């Protein structure tokens, strides 16, 4: 199978997904294999919501829309242009996926197949409805994919390299278990925002998207912010208020009530507005419905701190702070070359011996 065939298959998948990228799902004409797969994918979306209470219609649509927009001929060719994608000998690459947000492991899945390798997927129990169905679509869009995609719930066997995502604890297990295989092992990371106090209300509204999308469960969600001494938190709360309906989601509300009770009983200082809390804390990982913050006095010192702890940080949201910063509101819309943990997975896949 040539690279052009693989690209075309994913482009067809993108066109298929585009039908499900709005609240009003609309079956379009001229989508490859649509009669065979359209109704089935609607059902898989329903199953995903029933299985995982965090996978709301809104968040499923958001994820699908991102992938529908990413899987175009132009985007895929632009992404792959810097690499030498000749006819490399196909290896079998195992992927152990997280399940915190919908289709969170899709980029790894795409990367393995687009480089010509075979993929062996071990999914999280929290996100197992969508990807096998999309893999089946790919096999119909490009029959040469048949036999190159496997899913398993058993012990991983007969693979040449592995990409595994998990917690810091599971990462230690992965590092031991896969010590004799080429591997990318991803641990816990969180994202931070650096504010100056000069942000507009629109900036803060966009920051709210980075905080609340997927209920804050993704590593690209902002869970910590740095603010200058004397920062006016009233402006921050005004900027995020349009997300107040998030408290109507039962699982989020339960977390909010629980964490608020813990903070009150422990007599921690915190600020809250009825659906969200902020607490001064040095940690990066904040609980659901909570954002940690720290004050800073010197931008240079803060840059040194974040650089020294970069292995704990996925994204930095800011304006004119660092070369690799992300604009407010864009953390959950990564480009194809925005690699998790800044590890180039395509380069890794092309170097498998």
From TrEMBL:
NADP recorded as keyword: yes
GO biological process, one term: bioluminescence
Superkingdom, natural source: Bacteria
Pfam families: LuxC
Any GO MF annotation of the entry: acyl-CoA dehydrogenase activity
Record's keyword terms, sorted: NADP
Keyword NADP applies: yes
InterPro entries the record matches: Ald_DH/histidinol_DH (IPR016161), CoA_reduct_LuxC (IPR008670)
Signal peptide annotation: none
Name of this chain's protein: Acyl-CoA reductase
Species per Swiss-Prot/TrEMBL record: Neotamlana sedimentorum
């Amino acid at each position: 199978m040539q690279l052009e065939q693989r690209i075309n298959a994913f482009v067809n998948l993108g066109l298929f997904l585009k039908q499900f990228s709005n609240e009003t799902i609309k079956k379009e004409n001229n989508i490859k294999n649509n009669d065979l797969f359209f109704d089935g994918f609607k059902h898989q979306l329903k199953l995903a919501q029933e299985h995982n209470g965090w996978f709301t219609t809104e968040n499923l649509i958001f994820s699908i829309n991102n992938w529908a927009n990413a899987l175009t001929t132009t985007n895929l060719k632009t992404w792959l242009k810097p690499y030498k994608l000749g006819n490399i000998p196909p290896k079998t690459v195992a992927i152990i996926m997280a399940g915190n947000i919908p289709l969170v492991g899709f980029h790894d899945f795409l990367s393995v197949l687009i480089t010509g390798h075979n993929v062996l997927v071990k999914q999280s129990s929290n996100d197992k409805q969508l990807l096998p169905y999309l893999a089946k679509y790919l096999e119909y869009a490009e029959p040469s994919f048949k036999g190159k995609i496997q899913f398993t719930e058993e012990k991983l066997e007969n693979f040449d390299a592995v990409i595994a995502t998990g917690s810091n604890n599971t990462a230690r297990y992965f590092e031991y278990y896969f010590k004799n295989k080429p591997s990318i092992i991803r641990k816990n990371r969180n994202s931070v925002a650096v504010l100056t106090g000069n942000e507009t209300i629109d900036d803060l509204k966009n920051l709210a998207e980075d905080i609340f999308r997927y209920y804050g469960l993704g590593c690209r969600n902002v869970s910590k912010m740095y603010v200058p001494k004397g920062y006016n938190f009233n402006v921050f709360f005004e900027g995020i208020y349009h997300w107040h309906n998030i408290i109507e989601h039962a699982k989020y509300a339960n977390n909010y009530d629980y964490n608020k009770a813990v903070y009150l009983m422990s007599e921690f200082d915190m600020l809250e507005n009825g659906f969200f809390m902020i607490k001064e804390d040095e940690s990066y990982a904040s609980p659901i419905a909570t954002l940690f913050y720290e004050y800073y006095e010197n931008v240079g010192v803060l840059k040194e701190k974040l650089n020294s702890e970069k292995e704990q940080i996925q994204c930095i949201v800011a304006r004119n702070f660092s070369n690799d910063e992300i604009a407010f509101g864009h953390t959950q819309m990564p480009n194809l070359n925005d690699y998790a943990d800044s590890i180039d997975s395509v380069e890794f896949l092309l170097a498998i011996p």
